[in-house]
Design brief:
The protein is an alpha/beta fold and 347 residues long. The chain contains 16 helices and 13 strands. It folds into three domains: 115 residues, NadA-like (Rossmann fold), CATH 3.40.50; 114 residues, Rossmann fold; 77 residues, NadA-like (Rossmann fold), CATH 3.40.50.10800. The chain is globular.
């Protein structure tokens, strides 16, 4: 079956399932999938959409942690599906519940205080459950800054995980200096952890945004001297400090729409998103800062979505099981709490 035939089948299944079906599409998905989604957005927008939906079947076109978050936020009689369960996230796998527990206890020993864990939503359900057990909460790149500010203003110390770059960039905006920011990794000893920091960050990172370098920035400045360079805050601190603007995918999109006609932008984030910007406004130039490709997002394809929806339309229990997202019962409540707290904090 060609992609065109798959798209035709998908549209037919959507008509057949009607209001029973909601397809969510992340900004990093291909244009073909993006157009087939009923709602699109960044991870925070999709989390809220899932929590507010009344559809019986919610299909997440994104990586697995997004589908897991969807499962956590929907109601008991609703069901969550993903076209590709193998679409993982390397950053999410950079820490697990056991490693988190060891790091958390090291921070407690170094400071004599219990930190509030602030977990980037790009994490496994196992880690979310562990963090939820310590009264922690999740954040996304769009709300990490206001949530971190609320926690710090309330007098807490924060264990931000797993993305060191989002942690450091958010901390810098709040005026938290190097002496108040401490990195923690698998091999970090208690005595190496500052006892006076406000933010402790796990040494994880996004492999896509980590590829973007200062060389790319310098090259872009030379090649497009009149352009503004905008990047995702998962990029390194040196890069974010040097460019013109940093924001989540939604914030980058808002920035793009607000620039005046005949503007030129160089955008540092996943290539599907940058390519889409190029097609949204003919009066604005959008260039890639680097070749940033998320191979896991690309694992979700039109044919896989077609097969997923086919299973739903046919009510084939065996096929539906291939795509349904089910979670261990013991993870459910504490993991869900991290997401509901996030939505409450972000307001």
């Amino acid at each position: 079956m060609t992609d065109a035939e798959s798209i035709k089948s998908i549209q037919s299944y959507k008509e057949q399932l009607g209001k029973k079906l909601l397809i969510l599409g992340h900004y990093y998905q291909s244009d073909e999938l993006f157009k087939l989604a009923d709602m699109t957005g960044d991870s925070y927008q999709l989390a809220v959409a899932a929590s507010e939906s009344t559809a019986e079947y919610i299909v997440m076109c994104g990586v697995l942690f997004m589908a897991e978050s969807c499962r956590l936020l929907i109601r008991e009689k609703q069901r969550a599906f993903t076209p590709e369960k193998l679409a993982g996230c390397p950053m999410a796998d950079m820490i697990d519940a056991q490693t988190y527990r060891i790091a958390y206890e090291k921070i407690v020993k170094a400071t004599g205080k219990k930190p509030i864990p602030l977990l980037y939503v790009n994490s496994t359900v196992e880690t979310k459950a562990a963090v939820g057990g310590d009264n922690g909460l999740c954040c996304t790149s769009s709300n990490a800054l206001p949530i971190l500010k609320k926690l710090i203003d309330a007098g807490n110390i924060v264990f931000f995980l797993p993305d060191k770059n989002l942690a450091e960039n958010s901390s810098a905006v709040l005026g938290i200096g190097a002496d108040e920011f401490s990195l923690v990794g698998r091999d970090t000893k208690v005595e190496e952890i500052s006892g006076n920091a406000k933010v402790y960050a796990w040494k994880g990172f996004c492999i896509v945004h980590e590829r973007i370098s200062m060389y790319d920035v310098l090259l872009a400045r030379k090649k497009y001297p009149d352009a503004k360079i905008i990047v995702h805050p998962e990029c390194g601190r040196e890069i974010v400090n040097d460019v013109d603007y940093a924001g989540s995918t939604k914030q980058l999109l808002d920035y793009f729409y607000k620039v005046p006609p005949n503007s030129s932008l160089v955008v540092g984030t996943e290539h599907q998103f940058v390519d889409r910007l190029r097609r949204l406004r003919n009066d604005v130039e959008a260039h890639h800062l680097a070749d940033a490709v998320c191979v896991n997002m690309a694992k979700v394809t039109v044919p896989k979505l077609e097969r997923c929806l086919s299973a739903l339309a046919r009510q084939d229990k065996k096929d539906m099981a291939r795509y349904e997202v089910l979670l261990p019962e013991e993870y459910y409540e504490p993991a869900k709490a991290t997401l509901t707290k996030m939505i409450s904090y972000a307001g």
